[in-house]
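We emphasize that the prediction below concerns an isolated chain of 188 residues; any contacts that depend on oligomerization or on bound cofactors are therefore not represented. The input was used exactly as deposited, without trimming of termini.
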Amino acid sequence: MSTVTGFSGQYVSLAVALRLALDDYRACGAEPRGKRKSIVEAIEGPRARAINVVLLNAALCEATINTVLSLQFSPAMWASVDRLPTIKKWTAIPQRIWPGCEIPASDALHKELAALFACRNAIMHPVPEVHRGADESQSGNVKDWRTLDDKLVTGSHDLVLRLLQHLAKFDFSIKLHHDSIAEHLNRR
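Result of the prediction step, given as a token string:
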């Protein structure tokens, strides 16, 4: 029997922080389409709040799958899994433990997770588009940043719960993680 120690406070903190950031984003209102009046409005407005939601959502997804998988693997095996991309941890690694647990790339859940982490990576590791003359020499990751829209921000707020529901079909003990997060994510 594996026991998780020193994590429950972080788990709860991420779920609560995500709920509060999402409430703040919703109170501020979605960013209107079209040009902004100034860069300050972009920094102080919905875009800044959306960044908070995306980063916290990605952190909660990563912390959750790390907890679930670290309970399943030996320390040596976990060391080989720990550095894998979070998307792979959710979509491919679980089938090593629970056959049939794959989330195919064509699945809406996989696409939503990929969009969340593409946007998160663009925020955390921005790469500018660089043009030299008529040739584009570096495409950057601005296209991933552009996915930061109201649908991604508000539509993915329960992504971690839906991912856990998928895993719980194969291992009922995962429902405990789901219920713990849901309690704090949905509290009003």
